[in-house]
Amino acid sequence: MKQSNFILFADCIPVKGFNRSIICDTKSNNYYLIPNGLYDILEEYNGKTIDTIKKDFEHRYDEIIDEYFDFLLNNKLIFFNSNPELFPKMSTKWNSPSLITNIIIDYDENIHDFNTLISQFEILKCSYIQLRFYKKIDLDYICSILKVLKEEKSRIVSIDFILPYYENFNLEELNVIIRENSRIHSIIIFNSPYDKSYEPLRQKMGYIMLVERNIINEKHCGIINEEYFYSNIKLFSESQHHNTCLNKKLSIDKEGNIKNCPSMPASFGNIKETTLSEALNQDGFKKYWNITKDQITTCKDCEFRHICTDCRAYIEEPHNIFSKPLKCGYDPYTNEWSDWSTNPLKQKAIEFYEF
Question: Which of 48, 159, 164, 288 is exposed most, by the fewest CB atoms within 10 A?
Fold first, then answer.
């Protein structure tokens, strides 16, 4: 079999970093760290035989090449076929019929009139919403929102709730709410006395997560770490052409101001007098939509750039829109993670944003 042509599975896509690379398995939502030498082989020799590679390297690295391909085979990243032309690369074009794909709505003391927003979501063809509550909220209000979504036959297919923990929190009541509402993707409870995740009630949908981390306001956004890596073709493709955090995203902050992101200062009106469509069409709303990771300082050298989110609200150089996210502690030049908040090189930016 190994005498035949090797072919990298189309949904397994290599990404090169400064010191090392990864293979993104976009089908299984997984990724594999590989040396840059293996990346170069996959890019140049995909569809050829292993013997061709060894011959081109004058048999100086046969043992290493065998190790590479044992790794690829063991992880089911390649297969062999004598007709490689029958297996083209997967397209990474990205498109969406939605004017807005995701909406974040923040709540504090002010409770926005959700009923008046539903019809506007439909106009924007939005399918995913996240509601973040910074103060204790009656679960009856959560139920009222879900009831409106049902009654209006909304196109919303996924909704996330982020809620604060409080004494005598009723997890069983939340489980009942999830069981009765298939649109719920997750309910995340912050400022919990412990971290705990529960299995989803449906495939990848309907789960509860408790986290000790406290979320006081919108400034908690923008954290970059491995927990938020997603190796799927949707994110990977969008990352090739757009900003994965801000492209086709809209938010309503706790005061009702319409923004691209709740953490960003620019407002394009308030929901009391401006429709979401009107805000979307204002100059500057889409300013950051097409900034890709390949354009951002440091990120462009990172092997994780196409499975990672991004943040333009909090960046290392506040006046440079192509600056690295402030809350990222990864260094692609050393391949080490560190605590971003204690990095002395980030302290000026931390003071600027008043964290």
Answer: 48
Report which of 21, 9, 86, 4 is spatially closest to residue 307, judged by C-alpha positions.
21
For 177-227, how does the pLDDT look when each residue is reduced to its tens digit (9 = 90+)? 999 999 999 999 999 999 998 888 887 799 999 999 888 888 888 889 898
Residues 43, 132: Cα–Cα separation, whole Å: 43
Asked if residue 152 has pLDDT above 80, the reply is no
Give the CB-side neighbour count of residue 183, counting CA atoms within 13 A: 21
CB of 4 closer than 8 Å to CB of 82 = yes
Q: Where are the alpha helices (DSSP H) in the chain?
A: 36-45, 50-56, 62-74, 114-124, 139-151, 171-180, 233-241, 276-280, 347-352
**Token couple for 1:** 């079999």
Q: How many CA atoms lie within 13 A of 115 on its CB side?
A: 5
Burial of 334 (0-12, 13-18, 19+ CB in 10 A): exposed
Q: What is the mean pLDDT of the chain?
A: 94
pLDDT of amino acid 228: 87
Residue 334 predicted with pLDDT over 80? yes
pLDDT tens column, 284-318: 999 999 999 999 999 999 999 999 999 999 999 99
Among candidates 134, 133, 135, which has minimal Cα distance to 145?
A: 133
- Of the candidates 231, 296, 220, 226, which has an alpha carbon nearest to the alpha carbon of residue 262? 220
Residue 13 has phi, psi (to 5 degrees) of -115, 120
